[in-house]
User: Fold this.
Amino acid sequence: MPATEESDFVANPFELISVDESKAPSGMEGDKWCKYIIKQGTNEIVGYSVGSARQVKKEAKEKVVELNLRRYGKKGPPKAKGKAA
Assistant:
């Protein structure tokens, strides 16, 4: 059965791929920068944040949760068909 846009969307949640110590991004100052990568299917978000790798990983995981909640809008995630509540 071919995949539908909705099933592709549901099947590809955002996920944290990596958090690594990094130099400050161009034009920024300071120490202890980390680079994080979040992916959803073929989409990739690369971000930088100041803090320890542990701290940035925690913050990036929170962003992933928020991004996944926003994917569904006000209606929330789609309900499984054929199952009684």
